[in-house]
Predict the 3D structure of the following.
Amino acid sequence: MKIQLIDFLVIIAYLILVTAIGIILKKQAERSKNDYLLGGKSMPYWMLGISNASGMFDISGTIWMVAIMFVYGLKSIWLPWLWPVFNQIFMMVYLSIWLRRSDVSTGAEWMLTRFGSKIDAQLSHKIIIAFALLSCLSFMAYGFIGLGKFIEIFVPWPLVQPYVPFTIAPEYVAHSYGTIFTLFTVFYSLLGGMKSIVWADLIHYIIMVFVSVSIAVIAMSALQEAGTLPVPTGWTDLFFGKELNLNWSGHISEVNDKIKKDGLSPFGYFFALMAAKGILASLAGPAPNYDMQKILSTKSPRQAALMSMIVNIVLLPTRYLLIIGITILGLLFYDTINISSPSGPDFERILPAVLNEKIPSGLLGLILVGLMGAFMGTFAGTFNAAQAYLVNDIYLKSFNPTASNAQISRMNYLLGLAVAAISILLGFLAKDVNSILQWIVSALYGGYIASNVLKWYWWRFNGSGFFWGMFAGIISAMIAPYISGGTLPLFYFPVILLISALGAICGSLLTPPTDEEVLKKFYRKVRPWGFWKPIEHAVKRDDPSFEPNRNFGWDMFNVVIGTAAQTAITALPVFLILLMPMQSAITGSILAVCVLILWKTWYQKLPRF
């Protein structure tokens, strides 16, 4: 156990700092609903971008990414396409601009601008609120227990017990740690709203840059001393064929069992399906969570696009410096770190095991602060999004449309406390309801794509179609795990997509279209491309000077170039730390060419405001 007094002092100093931020920004947050939920739409895009990236630097995701880098080598860089990581390129190129032009406060409010205010629009409004709240609460609950288990590794309860006047059952130690850090997070985000979240995320990101660079330097030095890594042929290859072709026999034979258990072979087919799913999910735009709220908090459509650009620049290189650093240390010192579990080696324990065994005190405290800050940033952003839907889309829409700023502020606090209490309760029950919560989350996202793609690109799609598309997708995703025989969710995704798409299309065609005036207003304001010809003609009848959006070709070209640049900026730090100069030079050259192209074809064509 390496944690020392200096590490505790670092953690305490960080908690005091973020608490002070909430207190300092409290008065600004109380001025209006927009000041609290969206920071008054006054914050610079680069701060929002760093904050958004910081919120994505979560503990669970980083632990998983270290594990897959250890097992699959550089090919693991492609696996985050499952999320998909390149959705930020779609956001950067055009979707952030469209979303910010709508000038709403939440994703649910956006439904009313797209579908109007009739019964079908109210159905779409209500189902997206339900989706947002369920997903927010689920993520907050899992973040709660995930952080608690992470801290428990470094601060076991026997180390703390002499200093507290009560005892805690061993099975609730992680929950207790989760409660402590959740309360700190709720305090600063509840008082200061979006601005306090962004400022805390900025401090956390600065810490993570220092931590990631430090670990990468330690790992590079260890690799230089060792000379080579104990990895199979192909581990350092970024590209792949039909099969994975990684054989760990003679190195760490247990890894072969992990690869077989993951079931990612044939890797080429898996990648093709993963990319197709990722493209569709990216076309759908952001889910109604903290990512969407950060976009809506920007000053203008131009700054919304630039904010999404910043996310790609600041998140991936920093995160992969940490990932490759921990992976190298894990490989070099595999025999001395403890990743055992009752079922054999648990490769998701590599990150905490390496930190515990190979990182000096002081720096360890900063690393713990950085990873805890990642949890706090993700939790705070999700917490703010849940508040936004409760206050803006339920309280103000259904109960008190004429509420004063004082009433809105009071309701923000009350509903925020309720959200925090529910998330903590779910966190305590997570051990028992794990399968149910995983079921809800996978079902919600399984049914999300079809309706949320069609809403942007097809004029005839209406509120009824949105409701029935999401409903059909969610129900089919709930049933699929029970009839799939243990198949990976990705492999039954096409079936869920087909069912939800049929629900969306039939729901639209069997009901009247959205009112033409609503569609014309939306089309003039947001200016999407896609299948909008009837509405384009209607707008031109009223305003012959109107110019529709003809940028589909350029946008798709920029998405391809942007995805190549994103992959290059991810791989470059990995090649550098692995001491691979030729691959580093090639990757750097590809990145430079992509940046030059995007400067000409994207940046210079952004809207001026």
